[in-house]
Design a protein that fits this description.
By secondary structure, this protein is mostly beta strands. The chain is built from no helices and six strands. A hairpin with a 3-residue loop joins strand 5 and strand 6. The chain is globular and about 30 Å long.
């Protein structure tokens, strides 16, 4: 899995049973969608690995900086 972006200052939100992440992007977004410092909301989380700090959505893989 290739990391597409890194989150800092993030949290998980529950929106009617759908979990997503909201946070600030740190550095470059591999897909060129976001600038460093942009606050974004992901689509629904497919999985999250707290031990390795990785969250997966349908189209992206995010590194979660604790």
């Amino acid at each position: 899995m290739e990391i597409t972006a890194t989150f800092i200052d993030w949290k998980i939100e529950d929106v009617f049973g759908m979990f997503r992440i909201v946070g600030r992007i740190a550095g470059e977004d591999a897909k060129g969608r976001f600038e460093s410092g942009d606050v974004i909301y992901t689509s629904a989380l497919k999985s999250i690995d707290f031990e390795n700090g990785v969250a997966v959505t349908r189209n992206s893989v995010y590194k979660l900086v604790m």
